[in-house]
Write a structure and sequence with these properties.
Blueprint: E1 6-8, E2 11-13, H1 16-27, E3 33-43, E4 50-56, E5 63-69, H2 70-76, E6 85-95, E7 100-110, H3 113-129, E8 147-153, H4 157-169, E9 175-180, H5 187-199, E10 204-211, H6 225-232, E11 238-242, H7 250-254, E12 257-258, H8 262-269, H9 273-334, H10 336-341, E13 346-349, E14 352-353, E15 365-369, E16 374-378
Parallel strand pairs: 5-7, 8-9, 8-10, 10-11, 11-12
Antiparallel strand pairs: 1-2, 3-4, 3-6, 4-5, 6-7, 13-14, 13-15, 15-16
Helix pairs in contact: 4-8, 5-6
Length: 384
Amino acid sequence: MKPEPLLYGDRKVYTVSAFNRGVASWLERLPTLWVEGEVTELRSQRGWASVFFTLKDPGEGASLAVTMPRGAFESLKLELADGDRVHVFGRPELWEARGSFQLRALAIEPIGLGAVLASLERLKRKLSAEGLFAAERKRPLPVFPRRVGLLTGHDAAAKRDFLTAVAARFPAANVVVAETYVQGAQAPQALVSALAALCAEPEVDVVVISRGGGSFEDLLPFSDERVVRAVAACPVPVVSAVGHEQDVPLVDLVADARASTPTAAARLVVPDEQELRERLEGLRVSLARETRRILEGARIALERDGERLAASPALLLERKRALLDGLAGRLRALSPSATLARGYAVVRGESGIVRSSADVEPGSKVDVELAYGGFGARVDEVRP
């Protein structure tokens, strides 16, 4: 609403509130812009909704008050301190209650590559000390994943390269694609959310995080602590295919495997169908050859068993005959006739075979059987 003045004759007079409101309304029409300066008077309290600091021009000494919502400031994880040189992206505004001119910050970036590299090195040491980059954490990739998750940028060339390579290697592969921001201030949180959604998809056994090359700044989201920790916590193995061979974002260090390009990532996560067919054909030939060898061995063994079986009755009869001959010999040796043939005789009296001199009396008649014939006799004398 346009501020209305008070009229004192032909004089228009604005109240302080109306004046401030009008200036604030005019400032809202100014575009967002980047401002460079040195951070001073950084003030932040846990209970405050905003963070306050002053940007100072080191050359001319001019200063500018800056405010930023606390949540947005903390999400940047910049660890700013007085004296740091930064670029602040924001919109000029007037705080109507006090008539204070300030810059409402939307983004803050340290100036120069050195500051970013130093920050990344600190984060790298921190995560390494926690064991996130340890080799023993690396998980093996599945040989035949049921579904492959692909996390990439919107309409990215990396997506086309990966899908083309997968289709060429293993047309039956099932790929679930999640597209999100891969550069810029909103990329880290977008990557974390997209990764969580991808891992929640049923039967996803491996995830590939891919984007093409870019500048050092373009790849910074893949070194963001939130993204690195999300990859470490992913329930399935993760393959990083970010940037080019010379680029090493922190995601590369925490991932279970690293690929230099999206095409190389495809070679890691899906098998080559032609190679599989060749291996299967080789196995089929080997199986057929081994089957023939086993059957031939079984045939030869069966023939030997048949020959032994055919010879078994004759061998058995021979063994039985030899056994019977042995038994017959023993029977002959034990028979009474054999005993008689050795000079012995069988004497029978009136009561049967005489086994003792008490069985006969002098004058009694006996019958004597010899090996060949026999004769009758009369007992003349009995000896005890």
